[in-house]
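Ligand: uridine-5'-diphosphate. Inputs:
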Amino acid sequence: MIKTANVQGFKINLLKYAEALDFVKISLDNGENIQIVTINPEMIEAAKQNPSFADVLKYSELVVPDGVGIKLALKFKGIEQEQIRGVDFAQSLIELSEQNGYKLALIGAKPEINQKLAEVLKEKYPKLNIVYHHDGYFQNEDEIINDIKNSGANLVFTALGAPKQEFFNAKLKSTLQGVASIGLGGTFDVLSGSVALAPPIYRKLGLEWLYRTIKQPERFKRIFPTLPLFLFHSIMEAGSKIKD
Ligand code: UDP
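Predicted complex:
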């Protein structure tokens, strides 16, 4: 059993970066079906309003803290947990795939970005086995799942935005065998070189969300009031535990 913490009713796995990567490797090598969630405060706030999404999160085999907000919520509870950013984790999984011959499928993002990502990765990792890739603007989910099945992929990256990618991955888990899937949000945009990675100072301070909001101001309404609200609830939750 992996160590977990509970943030506002939602489980977060408490693993170091290398341990989380090992967990995925072992699952892949054993041919297990797992769903990985890179969770952030927006997802928790959304899941509070959406019981089906909350269920998907609950039954995911690995939930890692992508957002700095989750790291802070854990800190309020006295738990030190490193942030496991989706973009970094995806990069490590790509390297792991190249070394171990995993069969990778890339589902998501706009058609030109999906195509560019496949090309950039093939160039950078010549031995990487990308068995299937498709943009994230498809109509028929079952067709894509069938394509993934036929490709023989055992590691599936989905970048459809939350909660769409988590629902997709849950369906993948219930339909296919021996597949590890991970929801990666806007990561394909970054990995393909179409959107800049937050500069080191933003990453060091856990302010990638601020950098993304500056670059894409339309994201403002997604962050506010969700992020402050989430932090407020986290402080209240930590405070009530201290009183008990
Ligand atoms: N996307 C997609 N299909 C959709 C909706 C979104 O492939 O139906 C892609 C979108 O092009 C982007 C990613 O999903 O690459 C979501 O990015 P966003 O910034 O919304 O995700 P976040 O990182 O905030 O979860």
